[in-house]
Design a protein that fits this description.
It is a single chain. The protein has 262 residues and is an alpha/beta fold. It has one domain: Alpha-Beta Barrel (TIM Barrel). The protein is 36% helix and 21% strand. An 8-stranded parallel beta barrel has the order 1-4-5-6-7-9-10-11, surrounded by 8 helices. Helix 6 packs parallel to helix 7. It is globular. It starts with a strand and ends with a helix.
């Protein structure tokens, strides 16, 4: 299973997300970088690569997600530094998705909380290809977080099915209330999503406390886990990541068999 470090960007700095309460985020202090590099996204990305061996990074541009200007220059700098970026900057249509790819992002994260319609997701997939999209199933305490006025409704499983039908080849299950809260991931939901859509790449973010949680996500059939707080406070280190990387999720055939037997 891949472990993907997270960079949450706000006002030009990397901030530490806690519980999805974005107004209270503070610049990241991390054991991975020197004290003078508090909130330095470039220094953190370098540490992710050099100290942890992570060549992917998930970037949440919180300013763009909430309607502000995206961190274009910072995203380009991170790309130039060798990061393969999965970026959420509030993409809501093909034009903003193409603009993000033009800045060098490897994959576009389309978040439920900023998606106007499922038709927009289908249009994005048609424009840039499903393989370049990660659909973020944004939740708060297990409940979907929807864009204002969005017509789509349903349970997390129903929305996961609808996103796959619209062209998403990868799903990120992200519970904002669990981010930085050290409550552990919602393994029941993860297992349900894995069983419901066994054919897609499954990523999970929010609540991972340590190596045991990562191993549980491997057992649940996850392809990747997003991690921030546990990396910054040192509860998960290079040895933990290497051990988890050596373990892969179940094969697609095994997932389908498991799903069929439910």
């Amino acid at each position: 299973m891949r472990v993907i470090p997270v960079l949450d960007l706000q006002a030009g700095r990397a901030v530490l997300a806690r519980g999805g309460v974005r107004g209270g985020y503070e610049p990241v202090e991390s054991v991975l970088v020197a004290a003078m590099a508090v909130g330095d996204a470039v220094a953190l990305a370098r540490a992710f690569r050099e100290r942890l061996g992570c060549d992917e990074c998930y970037v949440a541009d919180l300013d763009a997600i909430t309607g502000g200007q995206p961190h274009r220059a910072l995203v380009r700098t991170l790309v130039d530094g060798g990061c393969r970026l999965l970026v959420d900057w509030g993409v809501a249509g093909p034009a903003s998705a193409a603009a993000l790819l033009a800045e060098g992002a490897a994959r576009v994260v389309v978040g439920l909380e900023t998606l106007p319609t499922l038709g927009a997701l289908e249009a994005i997939a048609g424009a840039i290809g499903p393989e370049r999209i990660v659909f973020s199933l944004d939740l708060r305490d297990g409940q979907p977080v929807l864009a204002p006025g969005a017509p789509h409704r349903g349970s997390p499983l129903e929305l996961a099915h609808a996103a796959v039908a619209a062209g998403a080849a990868a799903l990120l299950v992200l519970d904002l209330a669990r981010v930085g809260a050290r409550h552990g991931p919602d393994l029941g939901l993860v297992d349900a999503v894995r069983g419901a859509v066994p054919e897609v790449e499954l990523l999970v973010g929010g609540g991972v406390r340590g190596r045991e949680d990562l191993e549980r996500l491997v057992d649940a059939g996850c392809d990747a886990a997003l991690l921030a707080t546990a990396l910054h406070d040192g509860r998960v280190g290079r040895g933990d990541l290497d051990a988890v990387r050596r373990r892969g999720p179940a094969s697609l055939e095994d997932r389908r068999h498991s799903s069929d037997s439910r």
